[in-house]
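note to self: the first set is below, dont mix up w the second
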Amino acid sequence: MTRNADELLEIGAKTNSPSYAPAQFLLDHGEGVWLWDSEGTKYLDFVAGIAVNCLGYKHPRIIEVIRRQSERLLHVSNMFYTREQIELMEALTQRCFADRVFLCNSGAEANEGAIKLARRWQYAVAEAPERIEIVTARYSFHGRTYGALSATGQPKYHEGFGPMLPGFLYADYNDLESFRAVVGERTAAVMLEPVQGEGGVRPAAPGFLEGIRALCDEVGALLIFDEVQAGVGRTGSLFAHQGYGVEPDIMCLAKALGGGVPIGATLATERAFHGWTRGSHATTYGGNPLVSAVSREVLAVIEEDDLCGNATRQGEALMDGLRSLAERFDVIKDVRGRGLMVGAEVGEAAGEISLLCREEGLLINTAGGHTLRFVPPLIVNAGHVEMALERVERALTRWSASRAA
């Protein structure tokens, strides 16, 4: 017997981890940039699984790759190579600064690998075992596992889970002098998001990343870019750092890399990988044939369909539209972003406005508690952006009316 939505939601409330608070409806299926719930309500999706579903839903090439690969091989141990794994690693290294790739399962795991890689390099290659400190930015977000959580510069995520791991220091994002004050002879690496995501969609300011690169070179530290959210076409270049013209030593990817299947990657130069030898690090599922095949196809579609260029065009239109709305609705204090990673700062009203947008048929979420975050699939077109702006306008009108009542 098929159970109805209310029955399933009741079971979910009893069995789901209390760390989650899902909306009280069931998403049922999707196509393109649209999602439908179990009652048939249609939503324009500008969450995309939090920047994961870069090709939207039901993309024919992804469906075909999953079908074909599932008939051949799903998983083997990393004790063996597969064609899919090698072709993905080749595709990644051909498109960026990196020479080698460690494939894993998530963004947190990719960041954990980067932290271990940097410390191991200082220990084994630089012969500086005292260099253990990882310097990150306040309001950063690097994941929920202990190393990534310790790297995250937001105390609210630390509360009740202490002590955090030692060796992590924080400085102010976009403030080079703040970093100069803490980066020094004990620094193993500086770890930054080129665009902060959970911290409120904050792009790096002109010259900031260049200054951090020079600072790392000056003191002998490695530079890690966490591109888990900003990478893979999201900001208008395949990798976010390419839009700034600054190369790291290590880069972390996940989210859009799999287009909906779970995959992460830690990429680095040959030099940075010199510290790792056989057995230094491993993971069971990383780079299995299924996710590798899908990820390779994601990269091909992004390239062939110029989705980086589309992200730039549609992102500019989205930000222009939000800035126009800010002229009429003073709750919008700032609009910022890069490509299709866009934030509108609205203060304490963020949660209410996000819910009103959902009622208007637009799915968005909040970042940093004060910012409306827009990270739609990279396949959105001008019509989708226009519809999204119309729905935001209706939501803002309703919110303003409720305040005036």
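second set (the one i keep forgetting abt)
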Amino acid sequence: MKKFFTKEVVASVLFLAVVIFFFVSTTLSNLPFSPKKIETVYTEKLYNKEFFVEVWSLSRRLSTGNKATIIEDAEYGNIIRDTHGKLHFPAAHLDISYETGQVLEFSAFLNERDIPFVYIQAPNKKLEGYTVFPDGGENYANEDCDKLLEILKENNINTLDLRRSIIEDNLDRDSLFYNTDHHWTTKTAFWAYGEVTDYLNRIFGLDIDPDGFYRDLENYKVTSYPESYLGSLGRRVGSAIAGYDDYDFISPDFETDYTVYDGIVSLDNPMRQGDFREAIVKQSILDSTDKSANKHASYFEYDYGNLIIKNNKVNNGIKILLIKDSFSLPFAAFLSTCVSEIHMIDLRDSASPAPTEYAEKFDFDCVMVMYNPEVFDTVLFDFMK
């Protein structure tokens, strides 16, 4: 005889009961409201929304178990859980002709002014030879990046593909990214910092950290926060599906002294001053007991449109412009330990300076663009504005 009370039925009944409870609670707590406001109320003012997500997550976990699956999402269409339990955003094939053209034009602009340029491709969480999606899971970001890099190489533009470096260095793919977040871990960012520094020295002859002191993890303190982090993807699907990530905070175990400026606010008055923790780190994020706090942003706290980091302990005079996305928060923090200045531009901030004008304004030893593969967006590639 077929069982009626299967785990799927139990999960459905549980979730239906919770939906009814939250519907009534949300409605009563937001009366009166017009029909036009209904969608806003139920997306932005849902009663105890976090708890609702967790109960939904538990009901979904009961029905799917640990297997790879596609999870519905109102904003992205779906979230993908692979066979290793790691969560991914979907990514369709895109027309990247505009973005490619912008990189070509920007490179030509810098070349005319004898400013070295490199396009650095950060890795995708969908890793070659490791990640397996369930049927229906789609993420074509790597394929789009391959097209971009192929065209850049055909035009003799310097590129560094960290996806290839992962394979060449035979890194442990299981620990490169968080399970619940789309970003690389701090240890992966530290590895990337070493790879990029080696490249800049080899291709541009910059002689950064010649004895390797600043690139040696043994000279840093690693503080572990076990099961303390629910990342951007995990917050969308709930911890019952995603679990929690461990977070490792890496900070220098040597003397440091920084001056940091918000370039949009003032180039004369520092935003922060002091050692690495005082100038670079947002301690309140590290100390927070809220597991949904964005620990990836423990470095710098925020993706500022224009941030300038001056290292008062390093006098090599090397000045780098980094055009970035959020992957660069820990990466730039580590790179700052061994160069005199890093200037960062994040074009998602509408107040960010024009890269062309900015590159001419300062005497940079090199300009780097480092983006992750899922970043294709016209705003982030508006280099010639």
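remember for set 2: Residues 162 and 169 are 10 Å apart (CA to CA).
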